[in-house]
Amino acid sequence: MVTHNRRMANSRSGDSVLERVLRILEAFDTSAPSLTVGALARRADLPQATAYRLVDTMVRHGFLDRSFDGRIRPGLRLWELVTRCYPARDLHDAALPFLQDVQSVVEQHTQLAVLRDGEVLVLERLSSPHSVVNQASVAFRMGVHETSMGMAMLALSSQEAQERYLSEHKDADALFPGGLRRALAEVRARGYASLDGFQDAGTTGIAVPVLGRTKHAVAAIGVVVPTGTTPHAIIAVLRAAARGIARATDEDSASSFNEN
Amino acid sequence: MVTHNRRMANSRSGDSVLERVLRILEAFDTSAPSLTVGALARRADLPQATAYRLVDTMVRHGFLDRSFDGRIRPGLRLWELVTRCYPARDLHDAALPFLQDVQSVVEQHTQLAVLRDGEVLVLERLSSPHSVVNQASVAFRMGVHETSMGMAMLALSSQEAQERYLSEHKDADALFPGGLRRALAEVRARGYASLDGFQDAGTTGIAVPVLGRTKHAVAAIGVVVPTGTTPHAIIAVLRAAARGIARATDEDSASSFNEN
For residues B26 and B1, is the Cβ–Cβ distance under 8 A? Predict the structure, then answer.
């Protein structure tokens, strides 16, 4: 997401500063949750002197935290400010009790996600110590046609959004017997999506859409179970939870960030 | 947290821009999770023209989201970047399965918190539809001596941190029979804190510290139950969970943000 199309410095609008702040925040990921300023400068493609100066400013304002050994992380103060009122919070808070119910019955990873920029963005994930391996993680993204949650949302998106996705992902056809369009039609007919081993071998994702008033998906909930698990009871539990979440969610706020 | 001690504009370091960005993010709270730009300008104490310009820039970079009706919220992209690697994430992720266990047994609000800037910062909160009323909410703060989680952490903080808190909160003595110092000694002797109705009438908070290697608190977990609930089983469940969280947490990362 780093943009190399740099604008001219414009201190009045703050454009250049915010672009650099964004590049610094984008430099962190699970493989590098904390960084030295030198490593941060390289990953954010900023001159060392610029990085040192900007990191100092960001630490001073709570955008970054500096630990005792000098390493830098995104700031707890920034987390606090954003988490209070981020756009998906109403949906997340409404969904959490239902996710707990699903997790306590299925006893495997239980997730909530939305579509964002043509990708699946994971909003919440509940696990158990004995859950199967799964790479999904809160605030990370996955491919739409590579996850059951993505398929559940895409199949219940507007015709326009589906056609756009199909035209941009012609390579996905090879992954589904009969192609992606037919796979989506099957998800729509069944009311759930099931994908074997796309994320991790030996695991199956099962997901259902959370439908808004227009009967398009505003989110999806899903579980990851060992491949071969009988899905019927799981699908029933997920469907009941999805209905509960839809009822508990203020749709106007939910549909304002899910892009379908 | 808004600083009115404004520095001179310094476009090289980005200080003035980040200060304004911070004031904009601080303007949102649960009573105003989304705002018009005009209201945002007033709450952030910024000239309208400055606010319009900066909001445009922040929306362009994903720091803010603008909904179809023009109202502004903190951005989902910013949430995503910060949530991936915020300093308390390791602690949060390690604690979540234990919080689920406690919540499924006690069936009342179950929370995880740390000390920050002399306040209790709530990191997670699991609830049930039939839980009692409680005002605590993820990413919000509460007073240390007004919450059982705060008392559990303060009582197990360093002598120095406790003395500093006691000298800065002499008014708290009137709230505890025998004073705050004695109340803290009791929490330490018992290993848990219990407070009736400080946050909401008819409710009791019960909390235990999560201890680090130095036997100081790195966090606290607590539940909110109807006043009069027999606490013994709850305390046993909380203690077992706190030990599990301590074992599952990388203490170096935990102790780097809890200030005690």
Answer: yes
